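Write out this protein's structure.
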Amino acid sequence: MRNHEIDYRIFGEEMQYVEVELDPNETAIAESGAFMMMDDGIQMQTIFGDGSQQQGGGGLMSQLFSAGKRLLTGESLFMTAFTNISHGKRRVSFASPYPGKIIPLNLQQLGGTVICQKDAFLCAAKGVAINIEFQRRLGTGLFGGEGFIMERLEGDGMAFMHAGGHVFERELLHGEFVKIDTGCLVGYTAGVQFDIEFIGGIRNKLFGGEGVFFATLRGPGKVWIQTLPVSRLASRILTYASPGGRKEEGSILGGLGNLLDGDGR
């Protein structure tokens, strides 16, 4: 294997974290802000990009180019590497940023590549490359819900994604076809064909409440789907937080509650 081999355990139900066990000289990489805790004997270091160029002996310009591509996905130019510099096993933990599930990905068993939302990546073994994935079709790029650029995780080690709500995996057979809300798509393996389909019908466009595009995926390969995109969660919170945006279960009791707490109009 080119990538560092790491062991892991995932804890929690709705607010999960992953504990990565590192042997001496093993390294895990993570996005800025994912770190939760670590044992004594682990060295934390800020690096350009994902560290895969360092793993392969690339020069400074190669590392800078790899890191610069991350800016196109809206991510930080830097990542954080956690290396076990002690003589025994040590552990470092990374937490999910919002309610949902952490998805372990053994890239060696998944054909070496997984394409995911640009904010789904959480952490990985050093050597896993986090690159950009351009959507070749204009419609997919403009209306895909995740923009023209997604992230491509490549390697033969472990990587971890995070998604909102409940997350489930679906295996698509050769030629099997599925339509998914663009925000609910978390990731898919490289063999899956990804495109965007326009929702027909004027009533669907104006009153459907589900947007005007589907993500369409055709097998073979694996697809990961989330029930609660963070954009949907944020939108609902803003609706309740905005002036006049309060909603109640019953109109009579809701109005009474507004009067009692001084919110009656």
